[in-house]
Amino acid sequence: EAQVTQNPRYLITVTGKKLTVTCSQNMNHEYMSWYRQDPGLGLRQIYYSMNVEVTDKGDVPEGYKVSRKEKRNFPLILESPSPNQTSLYFCASSLWSGENIQYFGAGTRLSVL
Amino acid sequence: KQEVTQIPAALSVPEGENLVLNCSFTDSAIYNLQWFRQDPGKGLTSLLLIQSSQREQTSGRLNASLDKSSGRSTLYIAASQPGDSATYLCAVEGGGSARQLTFGSGTQLTVLP
Fold first, then answer.
1. Residue B39 and residue A50: Cα distance in Å, rounded?
2. ∠ CA B42-B44-B50 to the nearest 5 degrees?
């Protein structure tokens, strides 16, 4: 079954404690990205990756890091989380060429206290 | 910078009604427009994708139209059912090379039995 898997689904942490949200896809997609969703603001792109070892900033990259060492994995790293990073996070993937139908993970709800 | 607006923010209709959701965007230089469905606790599911050269796409009871010159799209749902209750998001893919999607804030639809 084609899927994008995020872990964990729910996470509560404290300010400054480093965390990683993992994302894995089994569709051999080149393109992967991270979004955050906040009430009234819609989904905003944090970072994206066009292929292995190729990453770039989206609209709201501050406070986040990513890496793409393997095609299937695209972890999101918060080195020093702050309360304004409390949000619902989604990972997505798609083929780079052709129709850009993006497949989304189920989301990670993060609370930073 | 592309901005996507969805009106209304919420809509409640009785079962069986036909309904229209609206989406507008400010920059007509797009590759495509997509409509997604988001269920609580789950990720986004792509419903329809309209390429910039197309005027509409249909899938079952769903019909999406695109008027690129006026920056508008509509999602028509025929004979609505309680199972259609969800948040519907539209997103446009911009004319740059990043394949970035810009999302609207969504319309929360409730279909009453």
1. 28
2. 165
Nearest Cα residue in chain A from B102:
A44
Q: State whether A4 and B101 contact (CB < 8 Å).
A: no
Residues A26-76: pLDDT tens digits? 999 999 999 999 988 889 999 999 999 999 999 899 999 999 999 999 999
Residue type, A60: V
Chain A (53-72) residues lying within 8 Å, Cβ to Cβ, of chain B: 56, 58-59
- DSSP symbols for B47-86: EEEEETT-SEEEETTEEEEEETTTTEEEEEE-S--GGG-E
pLDDT in tens, B11-51: 999 999 999 999 999 999 898 999 999 998 788 999 999 99
Query: Of the candidates B41, B93, B104, which has its C-beta nearest A100's C-beta?
Result: B93
